[in-house]
Each structure stands twice: as structure tokens, then as C-alpha cells.
Amino acid sequence: PSTVLMTVIPARVAKVPEVVLATPPRPDGSVPSSILAAAHIAGVDAVYRVGGAQAIAALAYGTASIPRVDVVAGPGNIYVMLAKKEVFGAVGVDGIAGPTEVVVVADAKARPDFVAADLAAQLEHDPLAWGVLITDSSQLADRVEEELESLLRGLERADIIRQANCCVIVAQDMEQAMHVANDFAPEHLLIVAGDAARLAAQVQNAGAVFVGAYATVPLGDYSAGPNHTLPTSGAARFSSPLGVHTFLKRTSVLSLNRGDLETLRDASVRLAEMEGLGAHAHAIEVRLE
Predict the structure, then answer these.
(1) Which listed residue (188, 228, 282, 285) is catalytic?
(2) 183 and 61, same domain (yes or no)
(3) pTM for the whole structure
(4) Which range marks the domain in which residue 281 is found?
(5) Residue 241 near residue 22 (C-beta atoms within 8 A)
(6) Do 106 and 31 share a domain, yes or no?
(7) CA distances from 140 to 122, 193, 199 (A)
(8) Is residue 225 predicted with pLDDT exceeding 90?
């Protein structure tokens, strides 16, 4: 239900006139009541009981029962993401997201149990997920490994977490730690340090930044404010989280009189001639004959 709210509400704020939802049904064909409730609250116009790559194809091209849409948005598994990549161009997409990621930048004073908890919270999503700790303290690195191993003994999804990608990087100092984090360009970046606010000002590439020991990433997944559909796999270098802007587009309108045309004539004709586009130049000149 959280993804329904975080995807539909920005669309409604952007004044999208019609919003439909595709969601995989249960084996008995029903849709969980929590998803239907979220759809009702957010203002979904129609719910289709279909998921996976076939849902993306249906939305992109239309079927006898599912109308073609203009934009497909929201997260999904690897099959959904590959399908979104395939249909891009026939339909707009919000992005091509990979497995979830979290990078934790922490100094020696960070609580190791807090750090371990945030790593586990993202790693439990997917065996392909990434959890990275970057710290200037080898002692903290060792303690976080111990805490994470202890935590796994009591988690239902421990097997998934163990399959996921988790690593610890010991940096020379916190400046180097931030350099590594910016190079990684993570989906989620959690900064736990005595000067967390100063370090946060150095962030250049991240989907969402969580500052301070109590800004745990799951709050952003559900209720704190940032959208949880975020760029992954380094895409934070050039893209942004899902938001109202995802459902907005721009266009240009030109209204010119003869005086405007005379002002722009010389530069426009010269460029047209340089590019070998005589008809372009003629379309300008003919209006001034």
C-alpha cells in the first residue's frame, strides 16, 4: 500500500486526469484490501488485477480491457524493470530501477546496532540488494559486523539478507568516506556522525539522504516524506526520485510579429545556410519579401 500512495499522490498533485493501478492478484484472484484501501484514498480511477512484465506491456500498448496509458511509474522486480526498458518510447517511464541499495556513512561514535539495523532493513528486500558501510573507524566496522550477525539470528528474512551484497569500507577520514559515497551514488544514503549536517552538505549523488542517527531509512519508505521510488545503480548521478515532476511535461509557445522576425532574421538565416537547410532560410526570407 505504501507504493500505491507514493506513486498515485504525486500524480494527483500534478493534476493527472486519470490514474490506473496494476497489481498482481492473490492465487484466488483477489486483491489485498490494504492495496484497495490505499488506491481509494489516493484517488485511483481503476484497478487491474495483473502484474509483472505482462502488466507493463498491457499499460504501454493497451488491450481489449486495459487502456493504453501515457506514463508507467512505480517499482517492481527485474522482469518489470526490463519490461519498462523495452516499452520506453512507446510510453513514458519514471525510471529503470535496479535492486535496492543503502550506503551508511558513519564515524567512530555511531551506534553499531543502529547501523546494522539499517543495513539489514534494505538487504531483506532482495538477494541482489546492496548494503555498504563506509566508516573511518575499523573498530566500528568490526562491531557492525558482529551486530549484524547477531541481528540475523532473529530475522525472518535472514536467508535473503545473507544472499545479498554487503560490504564494509574503512576510509582514511570522513571526507574520503563522502567521496566514496558520492561515487557510488546510492539510492539511500544514511549519514550517522557527530557533524552529519556538515557532511550532508557534501552530498552530490544520492536518491534520498537521511541525516542523523534517528533518521532511519524505513521511515522514508513509509511516512517521513521522501518518495521511496528512487534512482538506483548509480542513476542518482543524473536522475531524481519519483515525484510530482515525473507527471509533468513542458512545451514551448512562440508568438512573433514582423518586427520580431526582422530582429531574428540574420542569425536564423545564417545558421540555416551553415547547416545546408535552404528551405529553413526560405521560410524566413519569404515573409520579408
Answers:
(1) 188
(2) no
(3) 0.90
(4) 258-288
(5) no
(6) no
(7) 20, 12, 18
(8) no
Mean pLDDT of 87-98: 94
Can you give the C-alpha Rg of the chain in angstroms? 25
- Residue 122: the pLDDT is 96
Together in a domain, 134 and 220: yes
Verify whether residue 187 is a known catalytic residue.
yes
Residue 13 falls within a domain, yes or no? yes
Helix axes 2-13, 33-42, angle to 10 degrees: 10
pLDDT at position 153 is 96
pLDDT in the model for residue 281: 97
Our CA dihedral for 120, 204, 107, 192, rounded to 10 degrees, sits at: -50
Q: Which of 27, 20, 24, 6 is nearest to 59 (CA)?
A: 20
Nearest to 14 by CA among 222, 221, 242, 220: 242
- 224/135 same-domain check: yes
Polymer length of the chain: 289
Distance, CA of 242 to CA of 74 (rounded, Å)? 8
As given in the structure block, the three cell numbers for residue 107 are 564515524
CA distance 185 to 208: 10
Sheet holding 188-192, edge to edge: 165-170, 130-135, 101-106, 188-192, 208-211
Q: What is the pLDDT of residues 141-198, one digit of tens each?
A: 999 999 999 999 999 999 999 999 999 999 999 999 999 999 999 999 999 999 999 9
Neighbours of 287 (CB within 10 A): 12
Among 149, 187, 285, 289, the active-site one is 187
251-263 tens-digit pLDDT: 999 999 999 999 9
